[in-house]
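Let's do one together. I've listed all components of the complex below, 470 residues spread over two lines.
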Amino acid sequence: MIIVIDGLNRDRYGRLLDEMFALRARVFGGRLGWDVNVTNGREIDQFDALDPAYVIGVNDDGRVVSCVRALQTTGPHMLSDVFHEILDGDAPLRSATLWESTRFCVDTEILGRGKSRNSVSYATCELMIGSLEYARDSGIEDIVTVIDPVMNRVLKRSDCAPYDYVGKTTPMGKVPAMAALLDCTDERIDRLRAFAGVAGDVFVGAERAEQLAGAPDMTGAASSNWKADARASADAV
Amino acid sequence: MSVIDLSKLPFPENDLGDFLDSVCDTHELDYAAYAGTNPIAQTVHGFVNYPEEWRTRYTEQKFENKDPTLLLAKRSIAPVDWHRLRHEASFKTVFSAAHDFGISEHGLTIPVRGPYGDVGLFSVTRNCSDREWALLKSKIMGELQQAAVHLHDHVIQSEALTSILAQPTLSAREIEILQWVAAGKSQQDVADILAISHRTIEVHLRSSREKLGALTTAQAIGRAISRGLVYPV
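Okay, and this is what the predicted structure of the assembly comes out as:
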């Protein structure tokens, strides 16, 4: 199921956010080898201090299995402030009805193969459906998303191919990154739903949301003070 | 922070109050309001088309320091339906007072984030059933987003300091597309000439219009020509 955490409700979902930053550290800092800051096993950057919206997938046990971050393109966002190399020095798009999505990832360790509810494929599609529907219902028409070639192939295979790209493919650590354009139309969402066999509402209801609330789990790895980390990253830039 | 009533200030190009009225007329809304914060000048500025009596009460009670449709909504990137704020004590304070002036609890606030830490909040409200509200909302959300950014950019650019900072920067692709449209090509023609999709043309034109503070493509081309970005053909 999908839950949206933003500046209004994030104080209630400390545990989910902490798991999300840990997932991002494993994926972007570890597997993909992007040039990101990882502190205490959490990947947090200056954009996390700007009250972005996180669209997060959780499994039946309430664990975070996927996540993506959304920002408005009217204000500071990654393509305008960090990923200029992709734009090759050119100006970024700026529009009321265009959001930027970054840090899209799924947990390939918890999730399995195939197309069942606990597969990478299902979690990826469910997260895409959740983020497209959240954007659509906010009056957004298109999303510009920074992805790597693997994600680009996943999008194409899931019948959700980008309709175009901006800028050029640019090395970002071990892998190249690119900026793709996706429309948030019902047609695209319907195609994704048909491909993944997802029917019904993907978002958690009020009762499930209540169960998911809670502070970070302090046992195990040192939990990060992510607000302080995000501000420190902001200061460093 | 002080509140500046922008409706009392002269605007060279647009009467912003008229703009609010036209948004309400077009989208079947009762009232609309804009409030913005300028991080440089440290001021809150705004204008509304609420009844005069409610405006007086609002400022007398200093509701701008309590109102969750301003203080909380600015932390979202998506429009905030006031439903989400109903459990806040401050919501009850402000809206039980608003009720006496015939102002409904059905409303939403669209937060706009600008490039310099500036934030604008565009709110609309309508007295109707839950069902009508849900239907109306889904129908008008996209246009309200555009209205919100248009208002915010106009207000921010009207201030001397930010207008110097806010020179629009168009990308090479945006200029190329505007140049072809200025030469009289249709969007489909331009898509064919550049071998890109119609939707890519549209997304770049939308971005160009916003950067140039224009509501229509024709207006955007006029401004691009006046800035020497596009050649008149």
